[in-house]
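Page header: ASSEMBLY MODEL / two components / 310 residues total.
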Amino acid sequence: MSKQLLEDKGWNPYLAGSLSGIVSVLSVWIAGQFLGASTTFVRSVGLLEQLFSSERVGQMEYFIKTTPKIDWQWMFVVGIFIGALIAAKTSNSFRWEGLPDLWQQRFGPKSKAKRAIFAFSGGAIAMYGARLADG
Amino acid sequence: MKMLAYGMITGIAFGFLLQKGRVLRYDKQLGALLLKDMTIIKFMLSSVLVGMVGVYLLVDFELAKLSIKATVLGGNIVGGLIFGIGWGLLGYCPGTSAGALAEGRWDALWGILGMLAGAAVFAETFSFMKKTVLTWGDFGKITLPAILGINHWIIIVLAIIGGLALLRFFERKGL
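Prediction written out in full:
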């Protein structure tokens, strides 16, 4: 196997984590923005609901407080996708797969439907909790 | 428009580092929840400790202001417990799910759709929660240095010592 096809081991988590800490400090300094992601899901679903009934969305207390719009954080989440894509593609660690290794060890290779149900409900539960905790 | 560009650039840098730190993957997230692989805790704690020092330096030099969220025990505790159940089922966080999808781990897409559904349900039930859970133990916008009445650098140094002790423990146990 040629060396180029091997996935790199990634960076030391202390190094990558510390650098991400510096990124967060620079963001606070330059843009006055603290890093976060979950509000973006609220704004996004508000934008989607607006397509069907903008009147209703306009009257909902939570959407009055958290206006459905594309803001700094929304672009931040899109940026995470792009940044991770660049890092994955340049280190041969991009892998198109629908079942994580650990999941597959436990539930087998034919568990895609089960994974979909668990991931969807897990996402819904996690986001509900995150919003309730204001995190 | 400028803010949108800042958001995008910050996200690219952050997403790049998340992927390089190998913290986006289901196996890594579950590894931490199973107390078997603390890679994501190492990443998060390093980020928090560096961020804490940097942000407070900015505050001391009056270059930035803190953005303090209210401490509401009802919301924080009940919400935190609910979040943990969902995180364990999904194996990705709200922010990292976008990065996991970018790595080709497309099961994250189910998680993203679920998170949109969860956000919609929360928006529907917010008025009820605001009158109940979100009134339990509301302490307002407090910080540890403020309630203890001491300089914030004392707390920062203690947090760094505590954080480094925890990381040293992980390394000794080979986690």
